[in-house]
Amino acid sequence: MLAYLEGIIKERQNGEMIVLVGSGTQGFVGYQVKTPEHPRYEALIPGDRAEVYLYSHVREDAFDLFGFLSTQEKNLFTTLLSVSGVGPKMALALLSHTDDVNLIDMILTEDKAGLTSISGVGKKTAERMVLELKDIIQKKIQSGLLRSSQGGPKAGGSQGVVAGADGTVDRGSKLFIEAYLALQGLGFKELQAKQMVEAALKRQMKLDRVEEVVKVALQGGN
Known about the structure:
CATH 2.40.50.140; Helicase, Ruva Protein, domain 3; five-stranded mixed barrel; 8 helices; 5 strands
């Protein structure tokens, strides 16, 4: 079962992209990956290198790959699938409407009005999501698998970035994503921008504002 993919984006449109894996000497294989249609995915530009965490959905007549920018988002996607009546299409629509942290907050606060505002989610589905997922999500937050806006074992600054003792940085956090998108706006390529942000957060773990992260990232090793 495929779980992770890193390669060059060949095409991307309408929530799907083709990721090339291989080399010029041995040839390439193109994987078709479905992703949420949300502004945070606009950084996935054809010609750039991308890394996505995969969920493989196998049916008798199809083999679909769903790709996510972080393990948290993938974990939330699979958690949503446990709800009766919620399939991959609806789970992807939920993560296209909003980001993972906000969706978790809506479930924890029982915001059924917010959930039903999402296309395809009816009143009964929203009620089932709250009833079936609230306790599960709370347990996953406690174990560090998910985080809400209130944080949890994996939360760091006000926007949830962690640079732990082992030197890891949460690349799926809102702060990380907004910071590297800001660097891309300054002309840096996606992979370089991510590396710059990660290095900045490792140097100064208490950064919690986008402009601060960008400033430290631009300073580099100076």
